[in-house]
Amino acid sequence: MTWRLWAGLALLTLTASSAAVTEPAPSVWLGVVTYVVDGDTVHVRPLEGGALHKIRMIGMDAPEICQTGGQAAKQALQERILKRAVTVKPQGVDVYGRDLATIYLSREDVGEWMVRRGHAWSYRYQRDLGPYVLEEGHAKLLGRGLFAEMSPEYPYDFRRRYGRCPYQR
């Protein structure tokens, strides 16, 4: 082998190993939902034991608990996953210290399920319409849940106008 090939392989190995150190893959884990705070936040206890995790479901935004549709979203999520075993796929931590994660019931993405049923919106960020924009459109077309109203208020707009609801456990 030439020195250039050796140097290229060494650089490739160094780059790959440093990427692996700086960006570890999130570890998926199993747990039981012990409490539903609202339509997009739950408490999950790992099956293997350990501390309870407060999880904000990523990719969707449910109405605030004191907002129209907030109680219905919480109830739908409770009926779907409370006291059930779920798979948690962590994605990070938010500014409130909650884990950001996708939650699966069997193989079903619970956030997608909530949006498809009209209990939440696909989470928007700047120009990104979020991962569940098609499910949201379908719920709107069928007038499901929140979308039975003429103009439901997006939670971000509600928080800007009224602030956050009183803290929920």
Structural class, judged by helices and strands?
alpha+beta
Q: What do we call the CATH topology?
A: OB fold (Dihydrolipoamide Acetyltransferase, E2P)
- Residues in helix, %: 25-40%
Strand element count: 8
CATH architectural grouping: Beta Barrel
Overall domain count: 1
H-E string: HEEEEHEEEHEHH
User: Termini, distance in Å?
Assistant: 63 Å
Q: What's the main sheet like?
A: 5 strands, mixed, barrel
Largest sheet: spatial strand order: 1-2-3-6-5
Unreliable residue stretches: 1-23
- Rg to the nearest angstrom? 20 Å
CATH class: Mainly Beta
- Strand fraction equals 15-25%
Mean pLDDT: 86
Which overall shape is indicated by the principal axes computed on the Cα atoms? globular
Secondary structure tally, helices: 5
